[in-house]
Specification:
Largest sheet: 7 strands, mixed
Low-confidence stretches: 1-49, 81-106, 327-331, 614-619
Strand content: 15-25%
CATH architecture of the domain at 262-520: Alpha-Beta Horseshoe
Shape: globular
Structural class: alpha/beta
Oligomer: single chain
Number of helices: 17
Strand order of the largest sheet: 1-7-6-5-4-2-3
CATH class of the domain at 262-520: Alpha Beta
Length: about 625
């Protein structure tokens, strides 16, 4: 029996893996009373001499390979050091490409389950929903089946968000609901993701509501941790190690909730920005980019499966910078010797990294996979919008002209306290450049109301910024203090909840007032709408989105074929329909379908002068 095992990595962003009995040895209920003092030693049964000799030979080979790679000038990754540590401590390890190395008692490949079902509930950002697809893939590969609902599942995972207190409150409430099912059906309950990374042991100490706590970089270990729980009733497990290398590049996601039209593709993980209010660097770790080849191949596969739109995902998606291998440069060009710097007028608190394959170069390659597949990306940082990215979007019709450019605040002093790396003026200069080069582009943003020391005048500056830019979409929240962040350590959360609520209400009202004005100006415009599916409100209507990410409702009627105007055809999900906007009185636009079309066809019509939209009226 393993009472408590800690496995520590050599980086400050790495935490520990532990498996405990009872309520976990750190709860005060365990009879082992290890309290985290174990150093990763695993006392395995005696092995035959031949096996020991084989292990020693494998260890020696790996050590020689490691030495040779250093001689050749290669830079070792964190996993290289972890492998050496595992060799020393446990004397057994499996070499697996693309995979972080865990101790032998967490070797996922050796733990298979037959028939038990699993269900994952996802909360928070798009990255969490993409991670859920990775979790399903890991679990199915280990022999688990996918349940249709939490009520029928043997194992329920909550994939969580920790960015605001309200997000965590939802999880605590959901855990209290699952507690009844847990007692009645002996359901295994696990907490995954950012909240797991932030709260760790506290979740296991929560009145036995949680059996398993796993951070966002440790999903490969889920089957092995579940097998440890199965060994004894009441046993709990935790793995919250943060990896410097993990991107899950070799795992094919299982898209259980996909409409078959749109899909997420994760391209990088983590964040280096260290904004003073943000917990993400502490729950997701440092930035690391997935290989170019694996991303392009996943996009090709989605194209073969008939998907018409993908969204490239990352905590700081446009800071993508793949530097790991010269092989990744095939088709991109020679590796550049310079560093990757932010846009002029923007800065970072971290040292500029060596330049590899940039986001502009990646999205260039991705957009060439299928000219009829729309490409979106989120969530970016304003500092990582170089001119060549804007120029590429301008030239490539399947890269959507809908850009998320989070401002957070409209006041330079607040932005400095937030450590955003830009001023109001530099942000507006970026917006002005985008408006010049992409006059029909829609822009969305994030806003935080009531950040530390925010005055009423600083709040008014945010409202005036909203009036200047006139955003098409916005994510608006009042500030929620998060432990470990720079603001938590150095600032006082001195804006009252009453004032925060009032200011947030004003931000929301201003956003919708501006949006309604812009929606009215859409009347008479012609858009290419990708049909997502049947409207939830009426089976007589379809819902779709424009290139600029505006939702449009159209009637379910026959339209003319793209190739022959005399031939009428039914509209189907996943098709591009040319639509005239007839009503913009509400936030959702109403359209009249004209004919089937395509991205290339619609661009040709625009260039021929068939498109008469007066986009200048919108701004």
């Amino acid at each position: 029996m393993i009472n408590n095992i800690n496995y520590s990595a050599t980086r400050s962003f790495c935490s520990s893996i532990g498996v405990g009995t009872g309520s976990c040895s750190t709860h005060g209920h365990s009879h082992g009373h290890s309290h985290g003092h174990s150093h990763g030693h695993v006392h395995s049964p005696p092995q035959q001499q031949t096996e020991q000799q084989q292990i020693q030979i494998q260890q020696q080979v790996r050590r020689e390979q490691f030495k040779e790679s250093l001689k050749s000038g290669a830079i070792p990754s964190l996993n290289d050091f972890l492998k050496t540590h595992v060799d020393t401590q446990s004397q057994i390890v499996e070499q697996q490409e693309h995979e972080p190395v865990y101790p032998p008692y967490l070797d996922a490949a050796s733990h298979q389950d037959e028939g038990r079902s699993v269900f994952v509930e996802s909360y928070g950002c798009q990255m969490n929903f993409a991670d859920t697809e990775i979790v399903y893939s890991v679990m199915r590969a280990a022999g688990y089946t996918l349940a249709e609902s939490a009520k029928t599942a043997d194992i329920v995972f909550l994939n969580t968000c920790a960015i605001r207190e309200n997000a965590e409150d939802k999880i605590w409430f959901r855990l209290s609901e699952l507690r009844k099912q847990k007692k009645r059906q002996k359901t295994v309950v696990g907490v995954l993701g950012c909240m797991a990374e932030r709260l760790k042991q506290k979740l296991l100490e929560s009145d036995r509501q949680v059996d398993l706590v796993v951070g966002p970089d440790a999903y490969r270990s889920l089957p092995a941790l579940l097998s440890k729980i199965d060994e004894q009733e009441g046993q709990t497990a935790i793995n919250v190690i943060l990896s410097a290398d993990e991107t899950y590049a070799d795992i094919a996601p299982i898209r259980t909730n996909s409409n078959g039209v749109s899909a997420y593709v994760s391209i990088m993980r983590g964040c280096n920005n260290m904004c003073s209010y943000c917990i993400v660097p502490f729950t997701r770790g440092r930035e690391r980019s997935r290989s170019v080849a694996s991303i392009v191949e996943e996009v090709r596969q989605l194209s073969r499966e008939g998907y018409k739109e993908i969204t490239l995902l990352g905590q700081n998606v446009n800071s993508y910078n793949y530097t790991d291998s010269a092989d990744a440069m095939d088709g991109v060009g020679e590796k550049k010797p310079d560093v990757l710097r932010p846009r002029d007028g923007f800065n970072t608190i971290y040292k500029s990294p060596k330049r590899g394959v940039t986001f502009t170069e990646l999205i260039d390659l991705v957009s060439q996979v299928d000219p009829e597949m729309r490409i979106r990306f989120t969530s970016p940082h304003p500092k990582d919008f170089p001119d060549d990215l804007i120029e590429l979007i301008k030239r490539r019709p399947n890269i959507c002209q809908a850009l998320h450019i989070p401002a957070q605040s409209g006041n330079s002093d607040v932005l400095e306290r937030m450590r955003r790396g830009y001023t109001r003026e530099s942000y507006l200069a970026l917006i002005d450049m985008i408006r010049r080069e992409l006059p029909g582009c829609s822009i969305s943003s994030d806003f935080i109301s009531g950040f530390c020391q925010e005055t009423d005048q600083e709040h008014q500056d945010t409202l005036s910024l909203m009036d200047l830019v006139k955003y098409e979409n916005a994510f608006m929240f009042m500030y929620s203090l998060r432990e470990k962040t720079h603001a938590h350590r150095t600032m006082k959360d001195d804006v009252t909840d009453e004032v925060k609520t009032k200011r947030l209400s004003e931000v929301i009202d201003r956003f919708y007032a501006n949006l309604r004005e812009k929606s009215k100006l859409e009347i008479g415009r012609r858009h290419l709408v990708l049909i997502d599916g049947v409207s939830r409100r009426s089976s007589d209507h379809f819902v779709g989105r424009t290139d600029t990410n505006k939702k449009v409702i159209i009637p379910n009627v026959e339209v003319s074929s793209q190739h022959d105007s005399n031939v009428m055809e039914q509209i189907k999900p996943g098709e591009y329909i040319m639509v005239d906007i007839v009503d913009g009185s509400d936030i959702t636009l109403q359209g009249r379908p004209l004919s089937k079309s395509s991205i290339v066809h619609f661009r040709e019509l625009q260039q021929q002068g068939h498109q008469v939209n007066k986009v200048s009226e919108l701004y």
